Structure formats: C-alpha cells, structure tokens
Amino acid sequence: MYFDDNFERGMKIIPWLMVFLLILGGGVTAFVLNAVAQHIERSHVDAVYDRRDSIKILNKCVQFAGSHSLPVGEIIATICQSYLHTPYVAHTLENGAEERLIINLRELDCMTYVENCLALARTIKAEHTSFATFADNLEKIRYRHGLRNGYTSRLHYFSEWIADNCQKGIVETLPFEVPLTVNVNFMSTHPDSYEVLKANPALVPEIAAREKAINAMPHVYIPKDKIADCESQLQSGDIIGITTSVSGLDVVHDGILLRLDDGRIHVIHASSSLGEVVISTEPLPAFIMQRKSYTGIMVVRAK
Q1: How far lies 197's CA from each of 71, 88, 202, 211, in Å?
Q2: Which of these, 135, 156, 138, 179, lies nearest to 298 by C-alpha position?
C-alpha cells in the first residue's frame, strides 16, 4: 500500500466530491484538487511523480467512473483516446538501480502508455478509484510477479510482460495466435544503451539470466501475413506488441487496438517519430506491412 489507512479511507469519497466540485465551477475544483494532491505527496512512500499526475489520475477516475460495468478491454478503448496528443518522451522510467515506481501521465513512451491505460482501466473496473489503487495496479502490471525489487525486477521485454501478466490473471493471449520462437539478448549485449546497466555493470549477468529464462518460455503471435485474416476477431482495447527481425529483440513497439468508424482495426500508440500519442491512419494490416523488419504482432486481451 502507498498511504496510511485514514488517508485511503478519505480517498474513497474523492470521486463524489469531485463531481460536486465540477458542478460548482472550475476555480473551486482546481483549488481542492491541488489540496488533495499536496496531501497525496505528503502521504506517499516510494514513488516518483508530479502533482499534475495525481490530479490527472483523479480527473480520469471521475471522467470514466461510469464505465465500470464494461469489460476491462472496453474501458481501455475509451480511456486510451483521452491521451491523444500527449507528448512522447523516452526513458521516463530510468531512475537508478533501486527502481522507484514512476508515475507519469504527462510524458509517455509506447510501453508506459499501455501500462497507464491498463492500470487506470483496472482501477475503474474495481470501483475503488483512488491514487493508491492506481499505483498498486501499475506496480503489479510493470514488475515480475507484481513485486518491485530493483531494476531487474521490471518486465523489460514485452514477451515476458505478456507471460507474467497472463500468469497474474491480468491479460490473456488469443486462441488463434501461433507459436513464436523468441531469442532475446539485446540488453545484456548492449548494456551501454541502458543508463542503469552502464552505471551498474554488475546487473548485466542478472539481465542475461532473465533473457535465458524468457527464451525458454512458450510465446505466441500472429504473423504479419495472417493479420488481415484475423482482423475480424480482434477487438478495441486489445494490447499489441510488434514483433521484429532485429537480432536480440522480441518486440520494437507497443500499442492498443481500436475499431474505428470505417469498420477497420487501427492502432493508437505513443509514436517516437510523430512525437505524441496518435491513431494510425492505416488499418492494422497495412500499418504492420509498412516496415520490412516487422514480423507480426503479439496480442493480449485484458481480463
């Protein structure tokens, strides 16, 4: 837990208080939210975030509270669009070998975008819409077995992220995916590309051991030439990782699927090239076909 018991009980009334404040007017709401955020900062134990993040989470909990009866995937499909045009910023999770929990909704890369949407959807589904619940969900999703214990406990490779979150009952793979052989070693063979590994070379053997374990796990995906055939079975809110032929990597990009008014599945993602969260102009099959190094997609559905 992230807060003392009295504060956590108090947070349960915040969504209802915020609805009342929104009716009264923006100035009163901003004043009270700022006070709540200050209380959060005094009460939080071990996380890195800005007051604007805590306010954003409280706002989104109120904004999407009415979606709690929907399946988690449908909640994700609604929430993810509220991040459109949020700036892309890389390496926001790099904060040292001790690995404090980073909560940042203002600057996203492709993975933190997915994780924030999933954590917020699970928070709303549970009807326990507090900052503490969001933080607990985010930590459970981001770390092996849901336990944060240093840099190597983070699920750095998407293939392990899927396996671990399937084991935790958070997501599930789809029955029409086929076996995929994974051979990851990029982190251990390119430690200078990672700030924490460069500064802490003793962690590299731990990463190499994890890579070996990941390579021994069963994995599934949809090959790029089969995506069009499977498109009708994909749903808004499904989470994807784009598999690659780049040596040592499993996935090079992540995103969330949306079925748009054209009836086709598109990808909403934090794009490094466009510098913000965007929705692909092309349907998913064409989006994947545009790069030779893309080999397919790993897909999971939230439970």
Answers
A1: 39, 23, 8, 14
A2: 179
Contact indicator for 286, 224 with CB cutoff of 8 Å: no
CATH number of 177's domain? 2.30.260.10
Same domain, 257 and 177: yes
Q: How many domains, the chain?
A: 2
Cα 235 to Cα 259: distance, rounded to the nearest angstrom: 7
CB 118 within 8 A of CB 76: yes
pLDDT digit string, tens, across residues 55-71 = 999 999 999 999 999 99
Token code pair at residue 179: 């076996």
Torsion of CA 249, 106, 264, 253, to 10 degrees: -10
Q: Is 218 exposed, middle or buried (0-12, 13-18, 19+ CB in 10 A)?
A: exposed
Residue-number span of the structural domain to which 265 is assigned: 170-302
- Give a yes or no: residue 19 inside a domain: yes
The predicted pLDDT at position 23 comes to: 53
154, part of any domain: no
Token code pair at residue 107: 């600057």
Q: Are residues 119 and 192 in the same domain?
A: no
How far apart (Å, rounded) are the C-alpha atoms in residues 83 and 302? 19
H-state helical runs in the chain? 5-11, 14-24, 26-43, 51-63, 72-79, 110-125, 131-142, 158-167, 186-189, 195-199, 204-216, 227-230, 284-289
Q: Which residues fall within 8 angstroms of residue 187, CB to CB, at 6 or more apart?
A: 156, 157, 193, 194, 197, 207, 211
User: Which residues 6+ apart lie within 8 Å of 274 measured at CB?
Assistant: 88
Joined together, the tokens standing for residue 215 give 């390579």
The predicted model scores a pTM of 0.87
Exposed, middle or buried: residue 22 (CB in 10 Å: 0-12, 13-18, 19+)?
middle
Q: What is the pLDDT of residue 294?
A: 98
Residues 178 and 266 in one domain: yes
